[in-house]
Amino acid sequence: MNTKKTWITEIAIAAGLCFCGAAMADVATLAKTCDGCHGADASMPAIAGLSEFYHADQLFFYRDEERPCADATSAGGETTNMCAVAADLSDEEIEEIAAHYAAMPFAPAKQKFDAALAATGQAIHERDCEVCHTEGGSNAADDSSILAGQSMAYMEMTFGQYGAGEREQPDPMKKKIDTLSDDDVKALLHYYASQQ
């Protein structure tokens, strides 16, 4: 047995384990920053449980300033801009953050909703949205976010951005959004909020 070769192999393995541990610590540190707003603040989306592909895509969009990047104030009074947050993230960090959150369960927001509006919203969702946002908008595997259980405040802001053309969207979605009345949007908001 070549003891020199074995020794070098053991050092390489140990170095690899240290590197992985350091990478995990960095992701954990980054995640703590994200957790300060996401999931704890009604105006911010819950991001745990989003698909890895979708989550990474959104962070790339923010980094490249392809999504609206207005300043947002958290419940704790901190002002954040997602383009600024993502600006210095490497491709690897984005992928690691996305993988970290994809491995976590989605936690729907506990919020009030109108049951009659939610029933109307369900019918609208099934007619116009279910093709891409399956299982009532709750299936992360669709790679099109999770709508069911997101906070109503965040969803209202998002519908507003789509309706105003401020946020990129696929052509089929734009056609659907353009046909929705204000009452339709309100009903959809209550339907997604009802899924807790």
Describe this entry's structure for a reader.
With 196 residues, this protein is mainly α. The chain folds into two domains: 3-102, Cytochrome c-like domain (Cytochrome Bc1 Complex, Chain D, domain 2); 115-194, Cytochrome Bc1 Complex, Chain D, domain 2. It is 58% helix and 2% strand. It is built from nine helices and two strands. Strands 1-2 form a two-stranded antiparallel ribbon. The longest helix has 33 residues, at 3-35. It is globular and about 45 Å long. The termini are far apart. Residues 1-25 have low confidence and may be disordered.
Structural topology:
Layout: H1 3-35, H2 52-63, E1 72-73, E2 79-80, H3 82-86, H4 91-102, H5 115-128, H6 134-137, H7 152-163, H8 171-179, H9 182-194
Antiparallel strand pairs: 1-2
| Estimated share of beta-strand residues | under 5%
Give the tally of β-strands: 2
Biggest sheet, strands in spatial order? 1-2
The CATH C-level class name of the largest domain? Mainly Alpha
CATH superfamily of the largest domain: Cytochrome c-like domain
By secondary-structure content and strand pairing, the structural class works out as mainly alpha
Give the N-to-C terminal Cα separation: 61 Å
Q: Which spans of ≥5 residues are poorly predicted at pLDDT below 50?
A: 1-25
Which architecture of the largest domain would the CATH scheme give at its second level?
A: Orthogonal Bundle
Largest sheet: 2 strands, antiparallel
* Principal-axes shape call: globular
**Over the alpha carbons, how many angstroms does the gyration radius reach?**
20 Å
SS field, number of helical segments: 9
| CATH fold title of the largest domain | Cytochrome Bc1 Complex, Chain D, domain 2
Query: What is the H-and-E element order?
Result: HHEEHHHHHHH
